[in-house]
Specification:
Chain A is built from ten helices and no strands. Helices cover about 70% and strands about 0% of the residues of chain A. Chain A has about 230 residues and is mainly alpha-helical. Chains A and B meet through helix 6, helix 7, helix 8, helix 9 and helix 10 of A and helix 6, helix 7, helix 8, helix 9 and helix 10 of B. The structure holds a DNA duplex (18 and 18 nucleotides).
Chain lengths: ~230, ~230
DNA sequence: GTCTATAAACAGATAGAC
DNA sequence: GTCTATCTGTTTATAGAC
């Protein structure tokens, strides 16, 4: 928790004219290794030696670039936010929509979420990292929560309000939004158990669509049952 | 992975006449410590010293009773199965029910599950241990899956079939059962994030009921929308 | 069965050459 | 910026007294 700006401050790389892109270099390699290993094995179970080896660099570079293993973890959280923001865009307050438009938008969000959670190959590391931080209630979670999750959940609540006419910030609306999110998240978290029960080798194209169809059906059934 | 039956074989304790009860002694203390610490901090982040300290015994007793730290993990999985079986009883095929009876039984199961996941104080360690094994895809998961989870999921599928008239083992029925389970599980996994967004200090009596009511409403909405 | 003491390996962090 | 070598503490597992 010392520097992170001591070396090159890679977020504003002056060596290229591209505005913001996927960074390269040792620093970026270490972050990529962190996203993968922290997500797969957990923070505590990941050694700095394993991180350096996967990044193709040496042990000391972690301390040099991030101060400590913990510093690398937070840098990974920053990178997660940066990439997620590129996909979703800044979470905005949706415009006024008809109930039917709001329902369609919710279904689209749900399907996008399933696709992101289950299939996106380049997103697998990011998803794994976030879920692991959730499971560990890690320090990177607070950052991700404040700067992304909160806004997204509010957006869903507003869409639910437009679709059903209920209050967007009522307790039950917020719980409803979580229950919609939760269905999708569980299919990712429970993947090993679910694949086993479904006799699926893994999540593929067809499996992802079967899940998305089921969750979309649930969504519409729940919304239609509301006042 | 060597012994586990070398010492006293605590599962059939001859010193009491009670058939099967909560065991006592150093071995049981270590398992209790394992359930707590593995669930809270994860397997890798839990040291054998911390386990021994919490169990009020010494470091070497872990190797003596379980062969290794990994052996203690598997013994914890056994204990989870033993206690869960005491609560749920052997998963049985439900008798023939009317659609309305099946719906009511599903709601009762869902509410019991929410109570178990969110509130049961003596079950908190067990729940934490299982969820952690799921997140880590740990070796104890396979055992829990085979001897408990599979049967419970089948039971839910059969109840859904009775409530809606659809095939109990069709792909979509199995996915529907997972989506019902998933909603409940997510509220436990996402607890820190959810409590924050809901402005709840933690899950209590009222919060548990609000969640259960919302999930029950979802359940009936989904079932009613099916053919 | 329980304990202390210790062995052997490994962890994260750092010093200093280049 | 990158690297090797090393310091310092901790880890799991084990040996052996009681």
């Amino acid at each position: 928790m010392q520097n992170d700006s001591t070396p090159t401050d890679a977020s504003t790389d002056a060596s290229t004219d591209a505005p913001i892109d996927i960074p390269a270099g040792t620093r970026a390699d270490l972050i990529a290794a962190g996203l993968y290993l922290f997500g797969h094995d957990g923070f505590a179970a990941t050694s700095t030696r394993a991180l350096a080896a996967r990044a193709g660099t040496n042990l000391a570079s972690i301390a040099y670039h991030f101060g400590s293993k913990e510093g690398l973890r937070m840098a990974c959280a920053d990178e997660v936010l940066r990439r997620v923001s590129m996909v979703t865009g800044p979470a905005v307050t949706p415009p006024q929509l008809t109930p039917d438009q709001a329902r369609q938008r919710l279904e689209a969000m749900l399907r996008a979420m399933v696709g992101f959670l289950m299939q996106a190959p380049q997103a697998a590391d990011i998803v794994g990292f976030i879920l692991r931080e959730m499971a560990e209630d890690g320090p990177a979670l607070a950052q991700i929560y404040e700067r992304f999750f909160l806004h997204k959940h509010r957006e869903i609540c507003q869409l639910i309000a437009m679709a059903t006419g209920r209050d967007a910030e009522s307790e039950d609306t917020r719980l409803l939004a979580f229950s919609l999110l939760g269905q999708a998240v569980y299919f990712r978290i429970g993947q090993p158990v679910i694949c086993r029960r479904m006799a699926w080798p893994q999540y593929g194209q067809a499996e992802g669509r079967a899940i998305a169809d089921r969750l979309a059906a649930n969504l519409h059934a729940i919304l239609r049952a509301e006042p």
